[in-house]
């Protein structure tokens, strides 16, 4: 009997086993690479969302310098609406003017004291001189901080698969209040760095 013929099935089985092991290793490596790419995609997406928010925070702060009372509030509201539109587009969330407006109201309604301060800051501008200065200072910080908090809240919501239709005002409102404090710090740090660079 030919021993080569007897060994042929063994070598075929051995080759098949090696191919299977190699295929398992390649599959495992592919899953790992896909995970790394997915994680990098998320990081890039989050960085872009952060850029959108920070650009609008700067615009929101600038609205505090608008000298006309109440017009500054309309301009601030427009800035936040535009930011939310851009975030919706960035995350692929269906948006519309009414849906964005309703979502903003749902989140902001949980922060009545802050909104009252913004209203008072705007109304100070009716008083010439010191009232205008006080109103500008209040709105520069609070307008930017509120815009920051709105942006961060919706970025988090959208990144977790949320839409404008499933906004949970309590859940998002809790995050909004935390982000509001971070926003105030962000604005104050920017103001401090501007003063240092100016001197």
UniProtKB/TrEMBL annotation:
TM stretches of this protein: 102-120, 126-150
One Pfam family it belongs to: DUF697
GO CC entries: membrane
Keywords from the named record: Membrane, Transmembrane, Transmembrane helix
Membrane topology category: Multi-pass membrane protein
Subcellular location: Membrane
Principal place of residence: membrane
Protein name: DUF697 domain-containing protein
Source organism per UniProt: uncultured Thiotrichaceae bacterium
């Amino acid at each position: 009997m030919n021993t080569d013929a007897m060994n042929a099935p063994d070598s075929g089985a051995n080759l098949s086993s090696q191919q299977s092991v190699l295929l398992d290793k390649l599959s495992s490596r592919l899953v790992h690479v896909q995970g790394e790419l997915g994680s990098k995609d998320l990081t890039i997406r989050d960085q872009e969302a952060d850029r959108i928010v920070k650009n609008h925070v700067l615009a929101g702060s600038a609205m505090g310098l608008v000298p006309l009372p109440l017009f500054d509030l309309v301009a601030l509201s427009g800035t936040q609406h535009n930011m939310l539109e851009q975030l919706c587009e960035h995350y692929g969330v269906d948006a519309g003017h009414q849906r964005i407006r309703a979502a903003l109201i749902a989140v902001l309604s949980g922060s009545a004291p802050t909104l009252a301060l913004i209203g008072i800051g705007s109304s100070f501008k009716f008083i010439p001189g010191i009232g205008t200065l006080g109103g500008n200072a209040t709105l520069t910080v609070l307008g930017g901080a509120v815009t920051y908090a709105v942006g961060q809240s919706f970025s988090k919501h959208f990144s977790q698969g949320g839409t404008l239709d499933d906004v949970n005002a309590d859940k998002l409102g809790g995050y909004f209040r935390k982000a509001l404090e971070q926003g105030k710090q962000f604005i104050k740090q920017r103001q401090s760095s501007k003063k240092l660079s100016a001197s």
